[in-house]
Sequence to fold (196 residues):
Amino acid sequence: MNIDRQLANRALSAVGEPQLHETDTTSKSFLLVKKFYLPTMLESLEMVPWTSGKKRKKLEKDLSENYTDYSGAFKLPIDCGKIIELKDKSYYIVEGKTLYTDSSEAVLLYITNGKLPEGTGNVDDDFPDYDPPEYEAMFYQAFELRLASKLALELSGKPELHKMLLQEAAMIEEAAYRNTKTLSAGKKKGNSWWID
Fold:
């Protein structure tokens, strides 16, 4: 995955900084964008159960020792960015990269962060271990504002600007959360022939 320079430039503009050029790889702005880009993207993915980027996967059993009260242990997918639910709606806990549940076959619904198995990414990319899918527009708006809020502290030293940008991101995430709940409610409360 490469840095989306248009998104990064909008984040820099929001804090009053000059935009990055195509060949810029050494400026303070670029180095800060590179430092915060991936962690901020992953943080933004965890904030809301976004409607895009969802995947389902049957989990592999984890054969390590299980000291929990749950009967089954399963390995989380390498690209799991945010857990939404298990298919059978059973209870679970997560410790490290292991999901514990009483379900005998765990099928997980989750948001992918695009993480690739080690050594399979493009080494020329800014972040060779990631190749995320296209997410919805609201995700990119929230991600951009979160990135801008982090850049505001580092580049401009304005805590008020940081707070304002973070609040804007939170408002977008709140709207996205309501949107996700509305879309989920439609299939649960709709006519039975919609679901069948």
Q: What stands out?
A: The longest strand covers residues 80-86. The CA atoms of residues 149 and 162 lie 4 Å apart. The chain has two domains: 5-50+134-183, 54-112.
